[in-house]
Amino acid sequence: MSIINTAYGQLPPAFFFTRLTETVAAYADTHPDQRLLRLGVGDVKGPLAPAVIEAMRRAVSEQAKAPSFHGYLYEPGMDFFRAAVVAYYAQRSVTLSPEEVFISSGAADDLGAIGNLFSAAARVVVNEPAYPSYVDTNRMAGRRIIHLLGTRENGFLPLPGPDLDGDLVYLCSPNNPTGAAYTREQLQKWVDWANERQAVIIFDAAYESFIQDEDVPHSILELPGAETSAIEICSLSKTAGFTGTRVGYTVVPRALVREGLSLRDMWIKDRTTRTNGVSYILQRAGAAALSPEGMVQNRLAIRRYQENGRILSDVITRASRWFTGGRNAPYLWLPCPEGKSGWDFFQELLERAQIVVTPGEGFGQGGEGYVRLSCFGSREDTEEAALRLTKLL
Ligand code: PLP
């Protein structure tokens, strides 16, 4: 008998990002005169929107005085923030009740915890390549993973076939790392599949605010039937530059019931048991980020990243190279030249053009032979990278 969770021993070691960081650092050390263009990381530049800063200042002042001080809060989130999320969804004609909204410390936390609602026997479909947490958190829980591969043929947007069997499915649209985004019609096929099989979709909407195309839904809850089949996990990390501030939200619809149990009620029980919620100051910050004034300010930064996406897309299109992303997501996903692995092409771009990208191998199955370019670099670096890529491609 084992007293520890031996599933952790079967996880791949966290060497990928260490190797990446060390390789780039070693190159920078040995080539101090060369300007490195970092299009690898998926992190925002900042600063936070003025409306957010102001809300945090006010909240700090409230905490400084006994009459306005807040101690422990209701774990799923304060009314004002849940109302702000409800209003944000109403702009997309999605009607939520505040009781369906749960404030979190970011999408990664809830992606890690949502598995608490499912048994170890649940079979998990992951649309790969993928944000690594979907596979790793389920491996930690000892669940069987069914790897559903994105390919060039399906545009990295696999759909459920008649033989696909699974109990839980992770979908991320717009996608990290591929930048591909399901249209309404495509996503409806997943919703219908889940309802037919009584499966549950975990929908990661972390990049919804980058969507530019009309036929791409921002939320799976825009689709009929999603309220009985999907949990949506979202974040202010990329929408409002909160990667270091840490606020997100999760929507568990009331109508989502499996085996006679309400998943929303289960999630209330889970959250009130395992967490003490998100700090008052950060909830004020989050609500301000989603306010109309905050969103106008956030959109200035989003537009800058979208413009970077356009610059990089133009270069690759001009080179007649196939790719996904760059329009509805801040990532471009590019096949490597014939026979090269993502690591080989990463090394080539580093040495010949001093451009840092992320090898596709970091995103699980289906990632080999591709690299990810991020649109979160500065405008100056992105333009310079475009010039260097024009020569190289
Ligand atoms: N989901 C996806 C697809 C991501 O790319 C990321 C972060 O890069 C996250 C979730 C985590 O977001 P958060 O910063 O809210 O934890």
Q: Total domains, how many?
A: 2
**Highest-level CATH class of the largest domain:** Alpha Beta
CATH topology of the largest domain: Aspartate Aminotransferase, domain 2
Let me know the CATH homologous superfamily of the largest domain. Type I PLP-dependent aspartate aminotransferase-like (Major domain)
Pattern of helices and strands: HEHHEHEHEEHEEEEEHHHEEHEEEH
Number of strands: 15
Major β-sheet profile:
7 strands, mixed
**Percent strand:** 5-15%
Overall pLDDT score: 96
Gyration radius, to the nearest Å? 21 Å
What ligand species are in this complex? Answer: pyridoxal-5'-phosphate
Query: What coarse outline follows from CA principal-axis ratios?
Result: globular
Low-confidence parts lasting 5 or more residues at pLDDT below 50?
Answer: none
Helical fraction equals: 25-40%
* Order of neighbouring strands in the sheet with most strands: 2-8-7-6-5-3-4
Describe this structure in words.
The protein has helices at 15-30, 50-63, 79-90, 107-113, 133-140, 184-197, 263-274, 280-290, 292-318, 342-353, 379-392; strands at 37-38, 101-104, 124-128, 145-149, 168-172, 200-204, 230-235, 248-251, 257-258, 261-262, 324-325, 331-335, 355-356, 358-359, 370-374. It is an alpha/beta fold. The protein has 2 domains: 10-47 and 299-392, Aspartate Aminotransferase, domain 1 (Alpha-Beta Complex); 50-293, Aspartate Aminotransferase, domain 2, CATH 3.40.640.10. The strands form 4 sheets. It has a 7-stranded mixed beta sheet with strand order 2-8-7-6-5-3-4, with helices on both faces. The radius of gyration is 21 Å and the shape is globular. Bound molecules: pyridoxal-5'-phosphate. The site of pyridoxal-5'-phosphate has 13 residues, from helix 4.
